[in-house]
Design a protein that fits this description.
The chain is mostly helical. The chain contains 13 helices and five strands. The protein has two domains: about 10-190 and about 300-330, Rossmann fold (3-Layer(aba) Sandwich); about 210-295, Tyrosyl-Transfer RNA Synthetase. The structure holds tryptophan (TRP).
Length: about 325
C-alpha cells in the first residue's frame, strides 16, 4: 500500500538585481543553490529591476541587463514551468504593496539599516527616497508570495528581519495576513573573497577586474585571474588564519568539487601553489562552462525570453494580487 502526503511544499523566494554580470561569488554564494532549492521547494525567483533604479541606470544598458539576468536564471537551470520566474516591474503588485507597507514602517527603523548608511555614504550625490525605502520594497517582494523561506546572505539579513517585523506588525494590527518568512541558510555558505585582497568580498564593482571572476569569463581569462590571485609565502595548501588568499581558493575549490578542506589538504600535500591554482582554475572553468553555454543560447533568443517573462508575470500576478487584495480589504480600501 502506498501512502502519499499532499502537504504543500514550502515556498522559497529570492531576487537578484540586474546590475552587471554576476561574479563567481554571486554564483557560488547564491545562484548555484537556487537550482537545488527550486527542486526541493515551491520556488519564485525574480529579477529585481525596481530595486536597481535606486542608482541611475543607462536605459539601453539597463534593458539589456534585465533580459540578460533573466537568461542567466534559465542558464543556471531554473525551469520556468516549475518555478515562477519573473521580472519584478512587470508585476505591479510589488509597487502597490510597497507603498502600503511604507505607511506601516517607521522612519527610525529604516534609518538604522546598515546598508542604507553605507550606500548613502558611497553615493552621497544621490541619496534618494527609494534607497531609503528599499527594504520595504524587498518586504513587499517577500510577503506578496507568502514566502516561508528566503535564502539570504549576510548583507541582506537585516532586511529580512525588517520584512518579518512588518509582517508581524500587520498581522497583529489586523488579523493573520502574511506568512512570517524565515531566513534560509544554505549548507555551503560560500563567501567568496576578492582574488587581489582576500579580506574584501569579491565584488563586480571592484575597479580591478583581476579581483573578481565574472560568471561569463572565458576559460583563459579565468585561468589568468586565478594564477594571479594573491596568496602567501608559506607555500603549503592548508586552511589557517593569516592565509586568507589560500583559504579563499580552498573555499572556491571545495564549492566546485564538493571536497572538504581536509581532503584538499591531503590531495595537495607536498605540492606548490602553482599546481593548486591550476586545479582551482580547472574546477571553476568546468563549473561555469554549462552556465556560460546555456546563457549564450538563451540570451540571444529574445522571443523565448519574452515568453518566459510574460508567463512568469502572469503566474506571479495571480499569487501577488491575492495577497494584495486581502491587504487592501483589511485596511478598508474600497475594492473595484
Ligand atoms: N536586495 C537584494 C540584493 O540586493 C535583492 C532582493 C530584492 C531580494 N528583493 C528581494 C532578495 C527579496 C531576497 C528577497 O541582493
Amino acid at each position: 500500500m502506498e501512502t502519499t502526503t499532499n502537504a504543500p511544499k514550502k515556498r522559497i523566494l529570492s531576487c537578484i538585481q540586474p546590475s552587471g554580470i554576476p561574479t563567481l561569488g554571486n554564483y557560488l554564494g547564491a545562484l548555484k543553490n537556487w537550482k537545488t532549492l527550486a527542486d526541493e521547494f515551491d520556488g519564485a525567483f525574480a529579477v529585481a529591476d525596481l530595486h536597481a533604479i535606486t542608482v541611475r541606470q543607462d536605459p539601453a544598458q539597463f534593458r539589456k541587463q534585465i533580459s540578460d539576468v533573466l537568461a542567466l536564471l534559465l542558464a543556471i537551470g531554473l525551469d520556468p514551468e516549475k518555478s515562477i520566474l519573473f521580472i519584478q516591474s512587470q508585476v505591479p503588485a510589488h509597487s502597490q504593496l510597497a507603498w502600503i507597507l511604507n505607511c506601516y514602517t517607521q522612519f527610525g527603523e529604516m534609518s538604522r539599516m546598515t546598508q542604507f548608511k553605507d550606500k548613502s555614504q558611497s553615493h552621497a550625490d544621490n541619496v534618494n527616497v527609494g534607497l531609503f525605502a528599499y527594504p520595504v520594497l524587498m518586504a513587499a517582494d517577500i510577503l506578496l508570495y507568502q514566502a516561508d523561506l528566503v535564502p539570504v546572505g549576510a548583507d541582506q539579513k537585516q532586511h529580512l528581519e525588517i520584512a518579518r517585523d512588518i509582517a508581524q506588525r500587520f498581522n497583529t494590527l489586523y488579523s493573520p495576513t502574511f506568512t512570517v518568512p524565515e531566513p534560509y541558510i544554505g549548507k555551503q555558505g560560500a563567501r567568496v573573497m576578492s582574488l587581489q585582497d582576500p579580506l574584501k568580498k569579491m565584488s563586480k564593482s571592484d575597479p580591478n577586474p583581476k579581483s573578481y571572476i565574472s560568471v561569463f569569463d572565458a576559460p583563459d581569462v579565468i585561468s589568468k585571474k586565478i594564477k594571479s590571485a594573491v596568496t602567501d609565502s608559506e607555500g603549503s595548501v592548508r586552511f589557517a588564519d593569516g592565509k586568507e588568499g589560500i583559504n579563499n581558493l580552498m573555499g572556491i575549490y571545495a564549492c566546485c568539487t564538493g571536497l572538504t578542506n581536509a581532503q584538499i589538504e591531503a590531495d595537495f600535500a607536498g605540492k606548490g601553489y602553482g599546481d593548486f591554482k591550476a586545479a582551482v582554475a580547472e574546477a571553476v572553468i568546468e563549473e561555469l562552462r554549462p552556465v556560460r553555454e546555456r546563457y549564450t543560447q538563451y540570451s540571444t533568443d529574445k522571443a523565448y525570453l519574452k515568453e518566459v517573462a510574460a508567463q512568469g508575470a502572469e503566474r506571479a500576478s495571480r499569487v501577488a494580487n491575492r495577497t494584495l487584495g486581502k491587504v487592501m480589504k483589511k485596511i478598508g480600501f474600497v475594492l473595484p
